[in-house]
Fold this sequence. Notes:
heterodimer, A: alpha/beta, Rossmann fold, seven-stranded mixed beta sheet, six-stranded mixed beta sheet, 16 strands, 18% strand, globular, B: mainly alpha, ABC transporter involved in vitamin B12 uptake, BtuC, 71% helix
Amino acid sequence: MxxxxxxxxxxxxxxxxxxxxxxxxxxxxxxxxxTIANAAxxxxxxxxxxxxxxxxxxxxxxxxxxxxxxxxxxxGNKIMGRPAELVWYDEPSPxxxxxxxxxxxxxxxxxxxxxxSLSSNGLAEEATAAELKIPFVCNNAAATDMxxxxxxxxxxxxxxxxxxxxEMFAPYIxxxxxxxxxxxxxxxxxxxxxxxxxxxxxxxxGSVVGDDSVPLNTPDYSSFILKIRQAxxxxxxxxxxxxxxxxxxxxxxxxGMRGKIPICExxxxxxxxxxxxxxxxxxxxxxxxxxxxxxxxxEEKAFAADYLKKYGKPxxxxxxxxxxxxxSLFESIDAVKSTETEAIIKGLEAxxxxxxxxxxxxxxxxxxxxxxxxxxxxxxxxxxxxxxxDVKGTVPKDASELDKVFGDPVAAGCxxx
Amino acid sequence: xxxxxxxxxAAGLVLGSLYVLIAIGLSIIFGLLGIVNFAHGNFFALGxxxxxxxxxxxxxxxxILAPILVGLVxxxxxxxxxxxxxxxxxxxxxxxxxxxxLMIEALLQLIYGGIGQPFSQPPxxxxxxxxxxxxxxxxxxxxxVTTVVLLVALWAFxxxxxxxxxxxxxxxxxxxxxxxxxxxxxxLTAVFGLGCGIAGIAGVLAAPLWMVIPSMSxxxxxxxxxxxxxxxxxxxxxxxxxGLMVGVVTALTxxxxxxxxxxxxxxxxxxxxxxxxRGLLGERWERFE
Lengths: 417, 289
């Protein structure tokens, strides 16, 4: 699978040759050379994809990429009737992601970029998108500041911000009690979760009985679990990322703690739980989408069926997130019939998806996608290695409350420039 | 407070025992071959993946077959790749083994995908022991006991067998060993396979505890280098002591300053090197000076 995608990558040399050819065609067009102008029109439309290819987050990015490619294949690999292709570069680190975004724009000549698998990368990439004036549709990162104080008019973000998910999810957690133990990753995503939930817990009169900030890629959680066991909380509020959450849950079960203290976390991926195995999985989580949700509209059920047919396994939530982010971008370019930055931004701002009862769209004020979130719980008895969740609720219940639930962009610090 | 510290020390010793197993192979390879093997953590990951795959066909005997297979892969890598590096600049071996590490990780991702593979401990090792304040799971205790048995067996092998004597002599003066009529290239192949096989055992033991993902080597390789450096390059006993100390230091840091848990082993290494520049039990090796 990796080879297939790598084969689609444009090498530096090819990119330079392509850029030279494009530059030549662009220069020649004003001189009235119709043959060359037609050749330029036949050039494929290139869309950049910035997703990590290795590391703990690779489990999620595999599905994000699959969903993105499927969205293009469903359209016959065409946008505006012209051939289109994805150019996938890695996200090795925030700084490396910025460099790769620059390469995508300046060397591969993409007209927009999809990606942003981690909050730290997404925050860095959105700054580069503004600098390069390129539309950037972030399909995974959840850091509040992306569409808060760091927002810019070139960046559109799909995932619901941490602070909003916290507001949505807190009432469900309060049902377990108000003595919370925090175990969060020591980077943007985990810190955001700790800050947002602590504020809500304080308002509700609850108490923090433990608060561990955990280094990324921690391989052994036994000492953390011993601390949690000693603290005897009502509930554990997790803010661990991807593979770290899976490792924690695996060792939580191994130490015999599964079922003894509830575990809750927002913005997880299905793959985080699929990796744990049926014996060890547990918890209450938020999700944007679940393949076995009876309430999914027909279009999304068709996507799930297509995905299953193509990849031989159910679509994870991240596959849907890759698919819907890409679909909105491709349809927006189609609608405005242009690959110019300003036109694409207008197209995205006007784009609408979903159904009347469950719509989703990019809000103009902060370019945040407004959509209902799900609260899902791991089943007591898991029937197969994919079907782990029961949908416990949809937040907000009424679509008319979406704008209110997501809060005022200006109050969140977003001043679109 | 003593209760808490005792619990964390027990957890740290188990973690440290895994670090010891990973580091011992690295130390043996460096000691005899003079190669700093950046791909060592990937042989650890191969152990976990081979166990996972073989388990589907052979059941629990897979836990013995997997490290053997890793050892054989290691021997193949030595014949094809590492052998070309013995008379080259040390920097070349760093670059080549780093590339090998990336290649193995990419291969695992290509074959198994990026998603973690569920793998649990055998049912007979489920459950916990509770001695006063000290909690330890049956499986972790089994990992600790297995490590101790393996280390004793390895030590006896190195001390009392003719092959072990060749290894020890070869690590000090390979030229002299060659002059005595011993075919050193074969010995080197076996040593690289042995080091990789031990990493494979660590991978098998870690599979039910850690996430089995292509990048799992990253959680193993840095502690292994730290342990080997603290213990003294090429020192068997040094690696054992250092591994257990790193595990305990990490566990105690989690209790008191969790965000510094990973960083503390580097601080510990810096302190040890300031006091003993060759590591705890490191000696002067003429061939590396």
